[in-house]
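Hi L., both proteins are below.
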Amino acid sequence: MLRALFGYEEHPDFPARFNIAPTQPIPIVRLVDGKRHFVLVRWGLVPSWVKDPNAFSVLVNARGESVRDKPAFRSAMKYRRCLIPADGFYEWQARGSGPKQPFYVRAKSGKPLAFAGLWENWMGPNGEEMETALIVTTKPNQTLEPIHDRMPVIVPPEAFDLWLDTMHVDDETASVLIAPASDDLLEAYPVSVAVNRTANDNPKLLELFKPTDAPAVAAPAKARAPRAKPTQGDDGQGMLF
């Protein structure tokens, strides 16, 4: 399905993932000599001018409003745009002083999505080479607005070439695609906080979470229930967009 939608030449054997975190491999589709190709890169863009990637903050996302101006992004926006295939994404909703509620967001049709991405090729002084990418974000549509104030830019299939063809489409023209998705494209529903642990990577993470799924904790009479301590080793991803 992905190969048919994105039109790349490769036949990759990339396993299904259900909880991808920054610095892990992600697939991207990019244009090389007029043809689309599937490539695995690291999620977290490292600009080519960075001397030490280990001392550089991971750039997971780029705000679409300033992507043409920021030094870390403007070269990639001109010459290295890509698409990032996904079935959906997670977003976390703040709930006062309590823990954030994760949501899974997907297309109502069940079809894959294409996030607008940028990629870079970093080369070190000793010949090291690393390809990285990030997701371009924008303001939320009506589906995402109650959950978070950002969302990934989703490129419709008819605009794939407009975003990918950096040789014939300049960054200003391509930036017209940096806009919230149509309000009827997506649906979102709550999922378990198990997604907060990057070690959890299985289909159960996509199941609808109901409040009754959580074990009840009885509070002492006339006393405030104590706040639960965070689970040991919890490496929650927080808000990605």
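That was the first. Here is the second:
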Amino acid sequence: MPAAPNHTSLSPAATDIAQVAQWIVDARHLLVLTGAGVSAESGVPTFRDAQTGFWAQFSPEEMASEAGYLAHPQRVWDWYQYRRRLVAEVAPNAGHFALAQWQAQHSERITLVTQNVDGLHQRAGSSAVLCLHGNLMDSRWLLPARPCCDMRFTEDDGPPQCPGCGNYLRPAVVWFGESLPHAELQQAQDAAKGCDVMLVVGTSGNVYPAAGLAHIAARGGARVVIINPQATGLDQVADVRLQGTSAELLPQLLKI
């Protein structure tokens, strides 16, 4: 794999867009990492932005930890139901659709990894999405499931519980103090080692281990492209930085 040029840009100049688009055409494998900025373009509030009004009085750790859920199960469950309603009211944007359409044509050449939990990539048509932080719309058991635990039969006057043992259902997202799902993280790291081009889209680049994928890709000689309106913690590893939104730039870069 040829060494990538050390080339950075502070604005999405037409020449930079054309260069990155050609890199993508030529790439044997493309890795895409998306973050909260991609969802924000659809109107999805970030984790902390969702803590407004009544919810602003509670700390993130109270609302996103096993201890917080066990201490106040009704409160935490209600907050996640509120967040699920917010997500249900929005739609995928042009960036989501551009990725889904490119994947439909080049399914063997792309790995799509997201830090988002809203499922908008899947709603746009993307498949095999590696969700490093889980999926807000899914549920799983809080404690290891017993034979009596069956999601089809729960007592849901409040947070759903197993009628046999009282085990709670919880949102299938990664909470404070929990590890990222091992299989998804390993697949993402393997893709970072083997990709030719990596797009880092709408993420601050400050949350690890997800941000570490860009470092892995760069060490392997891949060209790393940052797509973000703001500066990020990964700008120093970028070959090109395109200053703009995913809805604006991804349709230009991912031409079918």
